[in-house]
Amino acid sequence: MDIKAKIEEIVAKLKADKTFAAKFKSDPIKAVESVLGVDLPDDKIKTLVDGVKAKLAAGKADDVIGSIKKLF
C-alpha cells in the first residue's frame, strides 16, 4: 500500500465530502478504515490519521502564507 497516495486520497475526500469530514472529525480511525476498505489494527491506522492531519495542517499553513504574500 502506498501510504503517501492514501493520505492524498483521504485529504481530497475530506475536502470534497462534508459527511466524510464530519466522520473523520468524530472518529478518524473508522473514517480512514472506510476509505481503505480493510480493518487494520488501530495503531497502523493511527499512522495514516496522523499523516492526514499533518497534510491538512500544512495546507492551512500554505494558505496563510499565500495570503500574507498577497499583501506585499
Distinctive features:
4 helices; mainly alpha; about 85% helix; about 70 residues
Write the layout of secondary structure elements.
Blueprint: H1 3-16, H2 18-26, H3 28-36, H4 42-71
Helix pairs in contact: 1-2, 1-4, 2-3, 3-4
Description:
By secondary structure, the protein is an all-alpha fold. Helix content is 86%, strand content 0%. It is built from four helices and no strands. Helix 2 packs across helix 3 and helix 3 crosses helix 4. The longest helix is centred in the last third of the chain and has 30 residues. It is globular. The C terminus is likely disordered.
pLDDT < 50 runs, ≥5 residues:
61-72
Could you give the order of the helices and strands? HHHH
Rounded to an integer in angstroms, the radius of gyration calculated over CA atoms is 14 Å
Helix content: over 70%
Q: How does the major sheet shape up?
A: none
Query: Counting H and I runs of at least 4 residues, what is the number of helices?
Result: 4
Shape: globular
The separation of the N and C termini measures 43 Å
Mean pLDDT over all positions: 78
Instruction: Count every beta strand, where a strand is a DSSP E run of 2 or more residues.
Output: 0
Strand content: under 5%
Oligomer: single chain
Structural class: mainly alpha
Question: What is this structure, in a nutshell?
Answer:
By secondary structure, this protein is an all-alpha fold. It has helices at residues 3-16, 18-26, 28-36, 42-71. Helix 1 crosses helix 4 and helix 3 packs across helix 4.
